[in-house]
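Researcher: Quick one. two chains, 246 residues in total.
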Amino acid sequence: MSQFEIRKWVRKRVRVTFDGANWIVNLPHYQTVPGTWEPVTEELIHEDGVFPGADMDKVLALLPTVEVDVPDRLVDETTGELSKEKVRALYRGIPKWDHEKVLEDL
Amino acid sequence: MVQESSLAVTIVARAAYYDRNPTHTSITDITFQVAPHVNTSRGSYTVPALRKAMLSSGNGGVERNTAATTVGAFGSSATAPTQVFKSYSADNTVGVKIFIPVSSGHIMNPGEQATIFDEDLSTAGTCSFSKVLNFVEFDA
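Model:
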């Protein structure tokens, strides 16, 4: 099987981060699962995102997470966990994804 | 006098993109009756090293399900990495909807990232969002 083929998607819960304009997940390839944001917190976070006008510092302090589906080409076949080695191999030479600390903020 | 040219041109036949180990993938998100939220990524795709990708099809849509007390801009969008579509409204009428198809053929280079987003900056009320981008990935 080629390292580029995708045969299945694997569900994981990961950290959501704020890039200055948008809430994102720091992965090269993913789809979020609707209704899975946590922790649901009044006036800050609901099950699908962050309320407009919410205090960003308070939201970030809650370390919000969401479930995502990721392609198996980013996942270790044995452990079922996200694989730093597979991500680095797939994106060899691309600075954003080929470095020692990739995936560490998830 | 005849001067010989030293310029040599080699022509190498190369398979079309769809014959260079093509694989298919997509990023998709469809959500119903979502409360207001700031701009949020619902999926992302990055072209691997030594590969390219063609955006083969896609679409984006939004529909208001329940009225807001104070309406703000709401909609969905996608970048790949430049803007692919943006379907937005500030209409508070229940049932108002926007649907935008995406033209195909946009080529992405290794490391370039596509992302789908949605947001609703209203107070109260709910909307439904859909975003789909399909890609053919192939050897660069």
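The longest helix of chain A spans residues 84-90.
Researcher: Thanks, that's what I needed.
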